Model the fold of this input.
Amino acid sequence: MLLITGITGHTGRYFLQELINNKYEGAIRCIVRDTSDTSLLDDSGLNIEKVVGDIRDKQFLDECMKGIDTIVHIVNIRHTIPIIKAAINNNVQRAICVHTTGIYSKFKIASEEYKIIEAELYKLLEAVDIKVTILRPTMIYGDLCDHNMSRFIKMVDRFRLFPVINHGKGLIQPVNARDLGKAYYNVLMLPVEKARSEYNLSGEKPITMLEAFKLINESLGKNRTFISFPLNFGVFLARCLKTGTLGKVDYVEKVQRMSEDRCFSHEEAKEDFRYSPEPFDIGIAREVEEYLKRK
Done:
C-alpha cells in the first residue's frame, strides 16, 4: 500500500492528477486534516483510503504506517524525521521525501534548519534498510496558491515603479507545480534499485530575476518601470527596519539572498526518468491569465 502526505496541497494535487491520468491501480492511504478539501480524492476513481488526523501525533502516525510499503511524503520537510521513524518502526521499504534546494543556500535563514534535519535523517538511515529518495524542488510556481510568483504578479500589477535589487541579476530557476506532480509520479514508478538518493527538480533553465519580472509585466500587458537599487542599500534599509522593530522584523538575509543565484542542474532527473520541465514563459503566462480572470 502507498501512503501519501500532502495530497491536497499545491504540488500534491498535481501528483494526484498523475495517479489518475495513469490509472494507478494500487491501494493508497492519504493523510488529511479535518479541514482539508478532499473532493478531488473522492472523485478520483482510485482506491483511496482517507485517514484524518494530525501528522504531529506519533501514535496516529504509527497507525497510519500499518500495511504500508512505500511513502510519498510531500507535506513539509519538518515532518520528515517523525515520518521516517514511524516508517522504520513498521518495516516500510521505501520513502520519497520532498525537501528543497534551499538547503544549498549560504544564508542560515534559508538553509540551517534543513541541513540539521537532513543530517539527522542520514544518521537515522545508517543502520536501517529503508530506501529513501529526496526530491529538491527549486522555487515553486504554477497557479495562484503558490507563495512565490503569485506575489510578484500582484506587485507588478500594482506598482508603476517596481524596485529590483542589484539590477535583478540574481539567477533563479522556477519550477512549475505541474512538472513536480509528474516528477513525483515518475520517481514512484522507478524501480527502487534504480532510484538515486537525491534529485534536484528545477525549471527548464536559469533566468534572472529581472527577466522574470519583465515576463510577468508582458503577460499582464503593463508598462512598468524597473528601478534598480544597490544590494548594500537594500541591506541597509532591512537593518534599519530590524533595529526599528527591535528585531521583530528581520529581512536582512532575505534581501541579501536576492543576489544569490538559485539555479540547479536537473540532469540526473532527466537521465533517470526523462524529466523535462516546461519553459518559464509558458507557465508564467498561464498563471497571469488565471490571476486576471480572478481579479
Notes: Residues 57 and 82 are 9 Å apart (CA to CA).
